[in-house]
Write a structure and sequence with these properties.
The protein has 310 residues and is an alpha/beta fold. The protein has 10 helices and 12 strands. A 6-stranded parallel beta sheet has the order 2-1-3-4-5-10, sandwiched between helices. A two-stranded parallel sheet has the order 6-9.
Length: 310
């Protein structure tokens, strides 16, 4: 089967490509520098070049709370247009299957914990990431309606927050785990006794190791053909305050953590019910959170000089 991976050069995409190669596939990897999927002409050219039977659509514009707050229009537009173009090109080209990747940001701000897929439409997303989440939710609707009208086998996966080696450690756009690791290691290196973090530390999050997510995506591509969205996660919830203390322990940071309560907290709680993924295609995450964090910290220690040089 000819496989196209959009965003295949990115953080998650690189792991999905590696996982496919382990399965004996040699996917066509689409990178933004070659194909800007917000442009119809580029999407059309990509599908003509790749001639895919299976599309795994991972291309996205995304960041942490600050990046979402600063780029609501950009993130909303880019993710909506990329998803729409991929689905329409798949229809035109007769692609056999499309895997679209959603986000936990699609869920309402006050979703009961654990988040179940049936709760997706029971409220508005958290305000700072709503444009991104709504754009991704529109892709879910697109996948379902293309299935209904055109018979396109399109599935939609909802991964929780990802982390792991190769993550984005740029403090302007990174998510919480890479930001904490970088801040703590740099504070040690510079002899600082304090770091400042956004909010009050009370929100909770769930995190999925990137290799586990790649496994889930590939297994779903092989085994799942349904219209209903499916969560990918671990069902392990941790507060941002406890997360900071754990990363402090693993990095050796012994300074003070000061919370800037003038900054937003984001969604109050996030934790998934992952039973549907296990029931429908046998996916269950296997990397322990502590082990995954340790691997990520070790990777960044080696990569830190390159970030400092930028």
């Amino acid at each position: 089967m000819s496989v196209l991976v959009t965003g295949g050069g990115g953080f998650l995409g690189s792991y999905v490509v590696e996982r496919l190669r382990a399965e004996g596939e040699e996917p066509f990897v689409a990178r933004k520098r070659d194909y800007d999927l917000t442009r119809w002409e580029d999407a059309e050219r990509l599908f003509a070049d790749a001639k895919p039977e299976l599309v795994i659509h991972l291309a996205a514009e995304v960041g942490g709370i600050g990046a979402n707050r600063d780029n609501p229009g950009r993130y909303g537009y880019a993710n909506l247009m990329m998803g729409a173009h991929v689905l329409e090109q798949a229809r035109i080209q007769g692609t056999r299957k499309v895997v679209t990747l959603g986000t936990i940001c699609e869920y309402p701000k006050f979703t009961p914990v654990p988040f179940r897929e049936d709760e997706l439409w029971n409220g508005y997303p958290e305000e700072t990431n709503a444009p991104y989440g709504i754009a991704k939710k529109a892709v879910l609707v697109g996948a379902q309606t293309y299935r209904e009208q055109y018979g396109l086998n399109a599935i939609h996966l909802l991964p929780v927050n990802l982390y792991g080696p190769g993550d984005n450690f740029d403090l302007q756009t990174s998510h919480v785990i890479p930001a904490l690791i970088r801040k703590m290691l740099e504070a040690q290196e510079r002899g600082k006794r304090e770091i400042v973090l956004w909010g009050d530390g009370s929100p909770t999050r769930e995190f999925l190791y990137v290799e586990d997510c790649a496994d889930g995506i590939v297994v779903a591509a092989q085994r799942y053909d349904g219209a209903e969205p499916v969560n990918l996660g671990t069902s392990h919830e941790i507060s941002i305050r406890d997360l900071a203390e754990l990363i402090g322990e693993l990095t050796g940071f012994e300074g003070e953590i000061r919370w800037d309560t003038t900054k937003p907290n984001g969604q109050p709680r996030r934790s998934l019910d992952t039973s549907r993924a296990e029931e429908l295609f046998g996916f269950k995450a296997h990397t322990s959170f502590r082990d995954g964090l340790q691997r990520t910290i070790e990777w960044y220690r080696a990569a830190a000089p390159a970030y400092a040089a930028r």
